[in-house]
Amino acid sequence: MFERTDKWLILVGHEMDNRNDDQTSMLSTLEAICKYAMDPANEIWIDNVHNIASYVLEKQNEIADLQQDLFTSEY
Fold first, then answer.
1. Is 37 buried (19+), middle (13-18) or exposed (0-12) by CB count in 10 A?
2. Which of 20, 24, 26, 43 could hold 15 in an S-S bridge, CB 3.0 to 4.6 Å?
3. Interatomic CA distance for residues 15 and 18, integer angstroms
4. In terms of DSSP H, where are the helices of 1-75?
5. From the CA atom positions of the chain, what is the Rg in Å?
6. How far is CA 45 from CA 3, 20, 48, in A?
7. What percentage of the chain exceeds 70 in pLDDT?
8. pLDDT by residue (tens digit) across 53-68?
9. Residue 21, Ramachandran bin (φ over 0: left; ψ between -120 and 50: alpha; else beta)
10. Over residues 25-35, mean pLDDT
11. What is the DSSP letter of 26?
């Protein structure tokens, strides 16, 4: 049904309620997102920003190290 795109989604908000006000995140929407995300079949990683940023930085450093190794081995 969905194509994997390796994108990120960070949710933040001020108010969470069942009212449809301008700056209110609807509880029903949040519940639907959480239900979808919690299903292991959807392979979604749920974590805090610090852990995800640390993972991304680690992977970027691994790529930079590989690129450096390739560059130095050519010369």
1. middle
2. 24
3. 10
4. 27-38, 49-74
5. 19
6. 16, 29, 10
7. 92
8. 999 999 999 998 888 8
9. beta
10. 89
11. E
- Domain regions of the chain by residue span: 1-44, 47-75
**Per-residue confidence (pLDDT) for residue 62, from 0 to 100:** 92
User: Residue 12: how many CA atoms within 13 Å on its side-chain side?
Assistant: 3
At position 63, the amino acid (one-letter code) is I
Terminal-to-terminal C-alpha distance of the chain: 47
**Average model confidence (pLDDT) across the chain:** 84
Report angle CA 13, 44, 3 to the nearest 5 degrees.
Answer: 105
CB atoms within 10 A of CB 49: 10
**pLDDT above 70 (res 1):** no
Both tokens assigned to 8: 């990120």
Kindly report the pTM of this predicted structure. 0.57
